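User:
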Amino acid sequence: MTKIGFISLGCSKNLVDTEVMLYNLHSAGYEITPNEEEAEIIVINTCGFIESAKQESIENILDAEELKKWGKCRHIIATGCLVERYKDEVMELLPEVDAVLGVGSLADIAEAADAVMRGEKYSSFRDKETCKLGGDRIVTTEPHTAYLKIAEGCDNKCTYCAIPLIRGRLRSRPIEDIVKEAQDLESMGVKEINLIAQDTTRYGLDLYGEYSLARLVRAITDGTDIPWIRLLYCYPDKITDELVEELRDNPRLLKYMDIPVQHISDSVLRRMNRHGDGATIRSAIKRLRDNVPGLTLRTTAMVGFPGESDEDFTELCEFVKEIGFDRFGAFTFSSEEGTAAAELDGQIDEQIKQDRYDILMQTQLLITEEKNEEKIGITVRVLCDGYDTVAEIYYGRSEADAPDVDGRVYFKSKRRINPGAFVDVKITEALDYDLVGEVLV
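Assistant: Predicted structure:
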């Protein structure tokens, strides 16, 4: 049986695509191996969002080429965003790649594997806006947690973002399909689902003519007993009163919301073509905090956007201090070909971008440390992710911690705790981004 190894790069949405391809290959009779050195075929699901991600994708292809020279690897298949974005160039510039699949061609992965095993080159770029969404998959996260992609593509047209070019327009999945997938995940033992899309708050606008995220959450709640449902990638201008009420009243919808604001300066937001201004962002945050007690707010911000003045950056720093986000990530502007922002005047020096990033993250670190100190002595509900045999301590996440992007809760216990179990942990120590505690007997 031919062994296939996978490398999945980029975001959680790309990971879901990888999981669908894994299922298709397994169903076609291929053996999946986590050890790349054993694989006869290596599939690299690439990211092409920003320059650093593109470089990482190319480096992984070149690393696979080394395995082709010295290991068991005979063929390389490249899929995903980088391939979709540079469909006419990948195989020409990277001749070591034997097959390429665009983002609309995931269903062709087994056919591609069959072709390369016959010694043939293979290429498939189906229409990304008409391809089937969803599909059976092999979940590669911890068995008790999973991402659930509710839509594909994006209509927001932010000037810095290449996603609409790569992934196409918004296409929401029907509610009944998503609920069925949630039920399948529950049957596998999943206890936490993280709803994802490029913009989850826009969900359903294309299918139902209105923002339908709250309706979807209710359907998942009614159709499953999954205890934790988490919302990621919610845009502040589309947070409806109905969604706020669902967040407040639904005990299984975690009091957690990820809102990527990107900036607060009106002039920067206009150049970014973000929907809504600084007042819109502040209003959304106030409405959420006033109506949802105990809410954890996460956001991301971009520094170094073309034309960002010292005053704009200072305004952003003051905003971060004013709001006191519970979770925060920042990144520097990357000028991407084909986007409107790449053509804007006022491009900023890379060192200035990095300096602003460092200042902003240091500003947030002080806020995070203070918030974590306030948690000492309280008890939090934790979903156990595993046990660190080196440090001899369990680790997991509270409802305030999304997988992959937020911190952890480390804890000791006198009894054995299995991954996927919920435990009550009394916090005894605060680290920079993590918490330490003990399980209550």
